[in-house]
Amino acid sequence: MTKKERFAFVLNYFEQHAPNAETELLYDNPYQLLVAVILSAQCTDKRVNMTTPAIFKKYPDAESLSHATFDELFPLIRSISYPNNKTKHLIGMAQMLMEDYNGEIPDSVSELVKLPGVGRKTANVITSVIHHQPNMAVDTHVFRVSARIGLTTNAKTPLQTELQLLKYIPEEKVHIAHHWLILHGRYVCIARSPKCGECGIRPACKYYKTLIKGQ
Fold this sequence. Notes:
This protein is mainly alpha-helical. The protein has twelve helices and no strands. The mean pLDDT is about 95.
């Protein structure tokens, strides 16, 4: 199976079985999604969703968050990974939004990455989810799943993975393909003991082919 054929098989499978895949982070607007994605770094979406309601209630927009102090915000995200840094990032992000963007969330990766706490992955998530731009956010799930299936070859960094995926995924499908790969990695192609027995991608998966050969 060529790489082009492998991509076609995988994308077709997901289109049939997960046509409405979307982020599991709960949000009502771009500001809330940005806060949630910043908090989700090295933390589960489930934990973030348990934490954000109190934040959004007290700080419903960038303006209110920009006036928060560390001691006021920290208790609300104490249970999140790296709470010290993320508290500083959220306040700094909100302050920059007010100072440079009139409180509006930028719609480009180049502008988003200027915000405290926002790296390329976070910026790709925001522009992909909110604006359906063809940007591929690569987290640990996407990185692992892409390599296992054989969608990427010898990709050593998230950026290398991103560029290889973008080469073969049609632009109009990139924004949802991001969710397909994440959810597949979260629930089926898990890090330890992937659930190959219930995976519909087996016919196109390099990892499964190697597994069978080894039996």
